[in-house]
């Protein structure tokens, strides 16, 4: 055997060193990939949490801006567009309650968070002019147009010519009229009082007001936001939105997971606070939950939404605070769950004027 053939190949020590280096590099690569994957998951969760929170808050704010649209104040100058405390819509009871939540590791604890259901009422749909009103026979004539959509059984809002009185009525019979005062024809309809949960009269005398030459809104909606245990044994809540109007009839028969649609998951708090501006004292004051909302003052609604990540993170995260509830999350201290608070404030435009 030549000297060259004797020196070919690796020694045992060289082979072991090579294997060790390979194992080290593989372990480092696996660790890096796992870290990057986890970091990508955390960033994705954070992005999902922010998108769901911000989108939900934007929709709530948009609904709040519609509160009281097409409706007038009651005998006490109170505003009918906001519902807080205990209230019923289509026989479904809403009101004050709480949800049970759970903090994350290292020391998971169970705690209850108070929540308040929140309703927003407004006249919606297309608007049509009233050109005939006979309360003795409960008949009305209104102008027709291409975008008008009204059917038997609909609850609609009628408003007088001076915008001082309004009431809800139920459409019982429709007859289309081509020869009338309106350019695109008319509808003759008979009406009756709506379901008791949908009845609205702006003030005691509003039922006797002449609504001829006033306006009719062909839809009457109530939107309700509420928190509900999202299920799955996670002790986390979901924010739901239920809309009650003729187009959504029967979409909610109980305050549960079949009521309305889910807006956001893994929610820890949803809180609203109504404020009225007293021009005499030149200051804002809170309207207690369940109290009548003054309609002759400027109103604003402060909204808070606290969301949380689905999975624990690598390190301990700081507490966040709901200013409206006056509660820190998690209440017992810190954990490895990331949370974020979303806040906005909406001024309602359909108030600030006295009733008759």
Query: How much helicity do the residues have?
Result: 10-25%
Number of extended strands: 18
Q: Describe the biggest sheet?
A: 6 strands, antiparallel, barrel
Distance between the termini: 119 Å
User: How large a portion of the residues is in β-strands, by DSSP E?
Assistant: 35-45%
Q: Helix and strand string, N-terminal first?
A: HHEEEEEEEEEEEEEEEEEE
Low-confidence stretches: none
Shape category = elongated
Structural class: alpha+beta
Radius of gyration: 30 Å
- Provide the residue-averaged pLDDT: 84
Total number of helical segments?
2
- How is the largest sheet built, in terms of strand order? 6-7-10-9-8-11
What does this structure look like?
With 356 residues, this protein is of the alpha+beta class. Helix content is 17%, strand content 40%. The chain is built from 2 helices and 18 strands. It has helices at 3-6, 12-66, and strands spanning 82-83, 87-89, 92-94, 96-102, 110-116, 118-134, 139-143, 155-159, 166-177, 186-192, 215-229, 237-244, 261-278, 283-287, 298-308, 320-322, 327-329, 339-348. Strands 6-7-10-9-8-11 form a 6-stranded antiparallel beta barrel. Strands 2-3 form a two-stranded antiparallel sheet. A hairpin with a 6-residue loop joins strand 8 and strand 9 (166-177). The longest helix has 55 residues, at 12-66. It is elongated and about 110 Å long. The N and C termini lie far apart (119 Å).
């Amino acid at each position: 055997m030549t000297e060259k053939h004797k020196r070919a190949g690796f020694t045992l020590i060289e082979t072991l060193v090579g294997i060790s280096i390979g194992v080290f590099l593989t372990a480092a690569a696996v660790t890096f990939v796992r870290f990057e994957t986890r970091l990508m998951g955390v960033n994705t969760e954070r992005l999902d949490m922010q998108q769901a929170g911000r989108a939900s808050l934007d929709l709530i704010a948009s609904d709040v801006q519609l509160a009281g649209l097409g409706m007038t104040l009651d005998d006490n100058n109170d505003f009918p567009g906001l519902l807080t405390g205990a209230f019923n819509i289509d026989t479904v009871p809403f009101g004050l309650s709480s949800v049970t939540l759970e903090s994350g590791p290292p020391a998971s604890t169970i705690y209850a968070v108070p929540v308040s259901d929140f309703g927003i009422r407004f006249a919606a749909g297309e608007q049509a002019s009233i050109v005939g009103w006979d309360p003795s026979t409960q008949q009305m004539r209104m102008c027709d147009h291409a975008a008008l959509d009204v059917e038997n059984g609909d609850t609609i809002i009628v408003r007088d010519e001076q915008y001082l009185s309004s009431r809800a009525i139920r459409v019982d019979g429709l007859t289309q009229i081509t020869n009338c005062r309106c350019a695109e024809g008319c509808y003759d309809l008979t009406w009756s009082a709506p379901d008791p949960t949908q009845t609205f009269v702006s003030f005691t005398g509003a039922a006797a007001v002449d609504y001829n030459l006033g306006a009719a809104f062909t839809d009457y909606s109530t939107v309700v936001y509420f928190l509900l245990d999202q299920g799955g044994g996670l002790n986390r809540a979901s924010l739901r939105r239920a809309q009650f109007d003729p187009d959504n009839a029967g979409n909610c028969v109980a305050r549960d997971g079949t009521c309305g649609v889910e807006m956001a998951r893994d929610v820890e708090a949803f809180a609203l606070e109504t404020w009225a501006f007293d021009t005499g004292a030149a200051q804002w004051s809170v309207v207690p939950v369940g109290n009548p909302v003054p309609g002759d003052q400027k109103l604003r609604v402060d909204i808070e939404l606290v969301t949380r990540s689905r999975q624990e993170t690598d390190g301990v995260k700081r507490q966040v605070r709901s200013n409206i509830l006056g509660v820190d999350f998690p209440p017992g201290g810190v954990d490895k769950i990331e949370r974020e608070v979303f806040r906005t404030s909406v001024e309602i435009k359909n108030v600030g004027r006295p009733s008759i």
